[in-house]
Specification:
about 120 residues; mainly beta; seven-stranded mixed beta sheet; 11 strands
């Protein structure tokens, strides 16, 4: 019944910006921490960013710190990932997730189907 739908992915050149969105339904959005993860072909799924339920606490992977920003709009039940200064190594399928607490691990209750981000050099 819970559904997370990512959007905003695409093909861009290195140095460009992109904003991903994840719309949630079937849950009380304000009761969940949200996170973003990514997975490149043949590689493990990696943590990108997470945001607490109250929107105050934010944590980022070292590889994206200073370039990516996670935010949420509880009125729209949507979490965002603003990605600036994109690099080819950012190429991956990006997934959003919802859980009871912000975490850098894969301990979330719900996951979206993902959106492809491709960065060319």
């Amino acid at each position: 019944q819970v559904q997370l739908v990512e959007s905003g992915g695409g093909l861009v050149q290195a140095g460009a910006s992109l904003r991903l969105s994840c719309a949630a339904s079937g849950l009380t959005f304000s009761s969940y921490a949200m996170g973003w993860f990514r997975q490149a072909p043949g590689k493990e799924r990696d943590f990108v960013a997470t945001l607490s339920r109250n929107g105050i606490s934010r944590y980022y992977a070292d590889s994206v710190k200073g370039r990516f920003t996670i935010s949420r709009d509880n009125a729209k039940s949507t979490v965002y990932l603003q990605m600036n200064s994109l690099k080819p190594e950012d190429t991956a399928v990006y997934y959003c997730a919802a859980g009871p607490a912000a975490s850098m691990f894969n301990s979330y209750d719900y996951w979206g189907q993902g959106t492809q981000v491709t960065v060319s050099s």
